[in-house]
Specification:
Blueprint (H helix, E strand, L loop, with lengths): L1 H15 L5 E3 L5 E3 L1 E2 L5 H4 L7 H14 L5 H4 L7 H7 L3 E2 L2
Parallel strand pairs: 3-4
Antiparallel strand pairs: 1-2
């Protein structure tokens, strides 16, 4: 329950501060935001901690259950946990 409350707060803050498509990193490079509802395996694997198997699991979950609307939905995907969500929360979009 607490885990979901924390993720809800992070998601709310993300929405509050907007969803940029390119986010500056400390080394000057940029990371492209990823729409988990439309992204390909290739695009999903750009997320930290998401390899080909997890990317395929996201797509299989999307195909079976429909679009995700928040970070909590991604916790239902096999192999996606809090750490993966926290590492990528500023890059994940649901548009």
């Amino acid at each position: 329950m607490i885990k979901r409350d924390i993720l809800s707060i992070f998601f709310s803050l993300f929405i509050l501060f907007g969803s940029a498509t390119a986010l500056a990193q400390s080394d000057g490079s940029s990371s492209v935001a990823v729409n988990v509802n439309t992204a390909s395996v290739e695009m999903l694997t750009t997320l930290n901690g998401v390899g080909e198997a997890r990317a395929k699991a996201i797509i299989e979950h999307r195909d079976k259950y429909g679009r995700s609307s928040n970070l909590e939905d991604l916790l239902e995907v096999n192999g996606i946990g809090e750490a993966t969500i926290q590492q990528n929360q500023s890059r994940i979009l649901f548009e």
